[in-house]
Fold each of these.
Amino acid sequence: MGTIQTNVTTGDTSEELALIQSAREGDIAAFEQLIRKYDRNVFRIAQHITQNREDAEDVVQDAFLKAYQNLKQFQGNSKFYTWLVRIAVNEALMKLRKRKSSKTVSMDEDVETEDGSVPREVADWSPNPEQQYRQAELSEILEKTIQGLPMGFRTVFMLRDVEGLSTEETAETLGLSVPAVKSRLLRARLQLRERLNRYFKKKKNNDGDQSK
Amino acid sequence: MKCSQFLTELNDFLDGSLDQKLKAELSEHLTWCHNCYIVCNTTKKTIEIYRENKIYELPDTLRAKLHDAIVTKCKSSKPTPES
């Protein structure tokens, strides 16, 4: 069985370092190129965490503005992308805290109450199960499914598996230990798999949807 | 190898970050344990589906709007002095 290949390349090229340097000196056009390169990623991250379109729009603006204002603090010890993601995650969490002012918001939210590390339903899926749905339906299924996960799980899954950060980068970005990221990633992956069963499992003859 | 041990190693197995010996043990487990085979296969598929069908795509019109707003804010802001 093949392994999952990470398909996001986020290493700082000399071209990117040159853009960062120009932007540091106040060249907005150079910074615009960096915005164009990463705005889609930042928007997705913001949506995943806040689950609110308006908040996500604010987070994208605030994150890039903060990055611009603090470019001189970027030392190049980490990749620019990872540094930007860390800013975006913090902005998104702050937004969430404001919205849920009566509740504490943290990466630890709900993670101890959900188990989900042992598969309850083992059902095989149809080949290419996503092709049973139109793109809009599929997006709705994927959104609904990941929204059901505790924030600490879905954020780890999104950074690690969708945005292509390494385990170490994910840990650094979220202020978690590497073992905590690994444990959350496993539980997130298994819970998503379990929740997607109802949409993707092979239909038996005369079978309605028997899943939970 | 027990199924519980297989599950513990599933992440590293899927990410291809196991040493050859452990990888061989897990592959051997998959040849006879149908449940783990399905869990492994569908978990791999889960990751692929989320990676290939990215949700929350940024629409072009909103992208342009955000872009303009960011640039305007950057122009009227001063970079924080180096600490």
Amino acid sequence: MKHIISALVENKPGVLAHVAGMFAARAFNIDSLVVGRTEEPDLSRMTIVVIGDDRVVEQVRKQLAKIVPVVKVQDFVGQPVVARDLMLIAISAPAAKRPEVLSLIEMFKGKVVDIGQKFVMAEISGPEAKIEAFINVCRPYGIKSVARTGTIAMPRQPKTEV
Amino acid sequence: MKPRSTLPAGSAGKSSIKTGAEIIVETLIEQGVDTMFGYPGGVVLPLFDKLYDAPINFIIPRHEQGGCHMADAYSRASGKVGVVVTTSGPGACNLTTGLATASMDSVALVALTGQVRTELIGNDAFQEADTTGITRPVTKYNCIVKDVKDLARTIREAFHIASTARPGPVLIDIPVDVSVTRCASDGTEKMELPGYKVRTKGNSRQISMAAKAINQSQRPVLYVGGGVISANASEQMRSLAEKAHLPVTTTLLGLGSYDQNRAESLDMLGMHGSAYANYAVQECDLLIAVGARFDDRITGPVKSFAPHAKVIHIDIDPASISKNVRVDIPVVGDAKIILEALTKEVEFRERKEWFARIAQWKEKFPFRYDRNSSAIKPQYVIEELCGQTKGEAIITTGVGQNQMWAAQFYRFSRPRQLISSGGLGTMGFGLPAAIGAQVARPDATVVDIDGDHSFNMTMTELSTAVQYELPIKVCILNNGYMGMVRQWQELFYNKRYSKSYVSNPEYAAVAEALGAVGITVDKKADVPKAIKQMLAEKRPCVVDFKVEREENVWPMVPAGKSINEMDGLDILESIA
């Protein structure tokens, strides 16, 4: 099962190496790992997607929490979350095919961010499944390259007062 | 290079201007350090200059690995934080085995390493190594200090992290320019560890559940690990065992936490544990693990480990809970506090049948060896040593057969009495560990029960013991083999003794050459006399016991078998 784990970490050198090293040393598989700054200058957030059974992911969570500069760890499994990936994709789009490609981008609510002689670069964001779907529909046209961020996520806010 | 001040002009206040090296020494003393182990080198010269007249007892090993093991054993013997300091590059690299040893066995250690100048880092400078990168997986925490202003705080954090929660080694890497830079320090720089939380008090509801399970159990076993010793909770554990009337088995590192001379002691469990401990664990209806981590040498295949038992696990490390074996009642916190609370809630139960069954196993399958043999049996040497030291010596060990026999045949009764590399299984640990333990406990009798091949790995440290006039004793159980490797080759590789022996020196001559006393014993009748002489020696003393060459450690749980499926019980019965 896929788990999105969010770790708030101290913004210190070596933290990423520590986290990545722990995953390697304990033979946990990382599907994706995203690091970025937060609203607090001293803290960064790592969003890590891990695939494994409950016992493995429980260990991942505990081992992460054990790392000294890791401040807080949350596993979003079973909670309503907003999860997004961002992708830049360069698609082959010669003049004859270009209208088709542009309409696909529009259908996926993507943005054209660069146009060259042979290629169109699009920016697509959304849940991972949507990103995958877009890659699949672009394949017949020819994909030059793809750059993806991996998943970031945040739990949804309560809708009613409890 | 002229040291530059990082302090703005005119803002001295109460604090005074110090160099990084001065801050290091002052903060170490503030943390209660009076003993250090280490080896100098280029980039730590500013620090060693400050150590020249510091009130710190400094032990120089012959190799940094030895220094790290000494600091480790110093910590295990005293309960204080061990401190080791080395130079950059090779000095730091040589620490790694020692750090990994301490890490696996949860030993409170602070390592300080020098590093090349900040601006040279990453340039493959002379004696540069990526020390924090290399040591990250074998430390509880490590970091590099690039600003002298962070130095005092970081050292305080290191001691706090090393000694609290589940203890472990912490390494601080200090570039040489940081050591010589001046900075204002008033000795009050506070720790900043937002991600480091220590849970000490166990959840009271969980404790009550554990008490209820204990009171209801017909066939309980208390399974105790090194965590009880590092938490200084041996007394509380004994109170619990007495009040609730529980049989007690310990891991290798737990030996000493419970008096093995008591009837309720099941001695050590696991691969070379006692048959009675292993049977009891496999038949128990409740396993109460305290400060133990269900290591594979204890459990065998986890699926068939303690198959009828409900499991209580008391541990300070939440990540230990349910890591290997599914736990029914976890209690996270300090063993001392939890055991005290738990003891209040448990009631005495006679458990006549259970204790009768255990007594039968103990009667039938004690640790045994052939006493009538004319050869020197290694077990006999240990028994004789135990008798002559009245079971009160501090014992360190190498790794392999010597270690297992020490665990089986010495009778431990006090915590911090056995110092052995359990988790990592580091050959060569015994001699430097004896030195570290003797430094911590100058008046104690410290004996390294070693194997010839383990001793070979670090015997250069004998010279350290001579220099500091440490009256350590070394009993080499010399069978001319890497005994445990040979045992496995005998049992599982058709007696093909592939590369499991080297040509050994005459240890007594080596000892004498290094300034220690050397004794060789090749007759069984000479064993008691030699041990008596060894114990009386004021100088370090090495006794080379030429023991039976192909003696095996029994019982033995073969790899992949459940712990009640021991080999060698028939052999033990035949020599009864």
